[in-house]
Amino acid sequence: MSHLRLSSLPAFLLLAVAACTLSGCFVSRQSTNEPLSMRAVSGLQPGTTTAQEVVQRLGAPNDVIQLGKRSAYRYDHTIQKSAGLWLLLIGFFNEDARQDRIWVFFDERNLLTHVGSTFSSHRPQYSMPWEDIHERSDNEPRDEDRREEEGVE
After folding, report:
1. Looking at the 3D structure of the chain, how many domains does it have?
2. How far apart (Å, rounded) are the C-alpha atoms in residues 33 and 63?
3. What confidence tier does 68 reach under pLDDT thresholds 50, 70, 90?
4. With 87 labelled, which of 6, 21, 33, 70 sits at a CA distance of 20 to 30 A?
């Protein structure tokens, strides 16, 4: 019996070393472009704000689209969070990317006609694949925190 125990010890040690060296985890965060401000967007007034004023408030657009004599500017900011867990032969990985996007449209005189915006770059979460990270109950507190931080209702 003691012979079996001694011969299984190296196998156990090898398995323990393999478990420690072949297991791991990681988290990462990536941000693309400058953050966008809800407050800056709320100050844009269709019919009075010019394209130059929009650029002064929001910075250079990511994209400019010519629509005949009219134009549109696109602004975006993305945050991506990734998490992973590796256990011997099984890996679990998840990425959650959310984006703020603003479209501003101008007439032929470069006056703002309308604005469309979505703000969700504050919502990405570190999580494993089996977690539901798009639940309303997860997002509502984050949305409220962002509105409070920016002083927007």
Report:
1. 1
2. 12
3. very high
4. 6
Name the nearest CA neighbour of 105 among 141, 138, 69. 69
Residue type, 132: D
In a domain, 21, yes or no: no
Nearest to 104 by CA among 152, 57, 151: 57
Domain that holds residue 75: 26-150
88 pLDDT above the threshold of 90 = no
* Structure-token pair, residue 83: 């998490």
Whether residue 105 contacts residue 70, with contact meaning beta carbons closer than 8 Å, is answered with: yes
Give the Cα separation of 109 and 89 in Å (integer).
Answer: 62
Four-residue CA torsion sign, 137, 138, 139, 145: positive
Note whether residue 142 is domain-resident: yes
Q: Which residue type is seen at 93?
A: F
Q: What is the pLDDT of residues 95-151, one digit of tens each?
A: 999 999 999 999 999 999 999 999 999 989 888 888 888 788 888 888 888 888 888
Beta strand 24-32 pairing with 63-67: unpaired
